[in-house]
Amino acid sequence: MAQHWKILLLVACVTIVMTAAYEKSDIASARIESCRGCSLNRLPEVKSFIMEDAPKYERLEVKFISGADPELILLDSNDRELERLLLSRLSRSECNDLVQSKGFSKKITNSEF
């Protein structure tokens, strides 16, 4: 029985290390995957972030997938997935804070020159 718990603990530790085994500098781009309606309509804050704010960020694309829960997917320079972060429990402000905390900045528009 003790051996079983040791194996479970080892698997849990490896999983934690693998999910957090990247640095902010490893993030090259990101993608938001979400349905266009369905569950997104029940999340007005997240919907506002995805439809109005997300397109304003450099290196961040939005991809609409039927039935998909809203997630931020962090990618490395080879488009390999580093991490998936569920957005459905966040406010619009928290979504913006999350994206900025991962190193993304808003595009500079002509009116800002």
Describe what this molecule looks like in 3D.
It is a single chain. With 113 residues, the protein is an alpha+beta fold. Helix content is 37%, strand content 19%. It has a four-stranded mixed β-sheet, with no helix packed on it. Strand 3 and strand 4 form a beta hairpin. Helix 3 packs across helix 4 (92-101). The longest helix is centred in the first third of the chain and has 18 residues, at 2-19. The chain starts with a helix and ends in a 12-residue tail after the last helix.
Essential attributes:
four-stranded mixed beta sheet; 4 strands; 113 residues; alpha+beta
- Note the beta-strand portion: 15-25%
Give the neighbour order of strands across the main sheet. 2-1-3-4
> What helical percentage do the residues reach?
25-40%
How would you sum up the major sheet?
Answer: 4 strands, mixed
